Structures are given as C-alpha cells and as structure tokens.
Amino acid sequence: MNQYDDFKAIIDAYLNQNGKSAEYKSNLHETSFSDAESVYLYESSQIDLEVINMDSIAQGPYRKIRFPESDKKEDSISTNDAFIICNDNMWYFIEFKNQKLNKTKDSVSKKAYCNWYMLLDIIYEMERKQRLETFWYANPIEFAREHVNFILVISEDKNPMEAKRIQDSITAGERYVPVFLEKLRKYIYHDVFLHTPVTLERYFVKRISLSDL
Predict the structure, then answer these.
(1) Looking at the chain, which runs of residues are DSSP E strands?
(2) How far is CA 82 from CA 32, 33, 35, 92, 95, in A?
(3) Phi and psi at residue 192, in whole multiples of 5°?
(4) Which domain holds residue 16?
(5) What interhelical angle do 105-125 and 179-187 show, nearest 10?
(6) What value does the mean pLDDT take over residues 132-145?
(7) Which of 5, 38, 167, 205 has the fewest CB atoms within 10 Å, i.e. is most exposed?
(8) Distance set, CA 80 to CA 5, 55, 165, 184 (Å)
(9) How confident is the model at residue 208, as a pLDDT?
(10) What confidence category does residue 26 fall into, taking pLDDT thresholds of 50, 70 and 90?
(11) Neighbours of 82 (CB within 10 A)
C-alpha cells in the first residue's frame, strides 16, 4: 500500500474501533459542492482525483465519538472539504469557496487549525494499534511545517479580478498568496496555494499521476 492507503486504513480502523462508519472516499468534484447555491465548483468534466471527504468524518462519526450527547450537525468541528496524501509524503488540505475571497478569511483560518487537530486526534488514538510510518509522532508541529500544505480554490465567477491575478502570477513564474493565507504558512503549513478550479486542474491535478498517489 502507498501512504495514502495507509492513512485510509487508519481511518477505517479508527471508525471500526469506535463502532462507527462513514462514506468518506470521494473526489474533487463531489467535495466542491456548495450547499448555499447547490453548485459544484469543480466540474465533473475536469480531470479528477480521489480524495478523503473531511466533512463526512467530522460531521458524522467524529462528532458522535467526541460529543455523543449532540445530534446537531453545527456542533461538528470545522474541517476542509478534501484531503489527500501524495507519494512524496506531502499532505494537502483542499478547501472550495463559492464566495468572494475577502469573505473566506475567518472560515479558512478556523478550519486550518480544527482540521489538523482532528487528524492528530485520530492518528494518536490509533498509534499503538496502527502506526503511520511516515508521520513524525515525536513532533507533529514540525511535521506540518515540512509536509502539510493547504489549497484554497475560489470561484472565478465570484472573483474575476483575483482569478486573473492568479493566472497572471503563474504565467510570470510567481504566485499570488493573500496575507491571511501567508499567515497560515508562517504558523502551521509547509506551503499554501490559491487556485481557481481551472488552475487547480492545470497546475495541481494534472501533475499528480496515478503513480504519485
């Protein structure tokens, strides 16, 4: 098995140990669904990747394990839409936002810390039974700074100026990163990226072949 499969095996063992289940295996198209407007940011016609649907874990089994007296979805810990581990042991959280970029700051920042906490909680609970050999159990903060990345994907329709700036920056061999994302890189992540669905496919998805996962 590759590292991504090893991680899914830990999730399965965690759910089984706690008598829970979740349909967490998904793809970019499905996890890009916007409940507010019932639209998908990442089209089904685009090249896709299998990812872990973080919400399906957080809003179901994880909440019921950690907060069993609650039956409210809104009591769930905040998580990103998707998660994937590549074969070079680089981890990626992916968040889709169908709104103006300047309105995403608080939500994105909150999810950054909450989602990392949830994964650490699961990883350490399962440490004695099923270890993730490539994870640095002795120093998870340093592991995040070396291996964990964040990708924010924004709607082109809602952010035409930002979408142009993203593409122009890439064409110039540069990268456009808003200050609030840069702060996340300083405090928690190895790197951060801002994409539209088009640039996500072109500069991330297409570069990840099946052999890379």
Answers:
(1) 25-27, 33-34, 39-40, 50-53, 82-85, 91-97, 148-154, 191-195
(2) 8, 11, 15, 8, 7
(3) -135, 150
(4) 3-212
(5) 20
(6) 96
(7) 38
(8) 20, 7, 24, 14
(9) 82
(10) very high
(11) 26
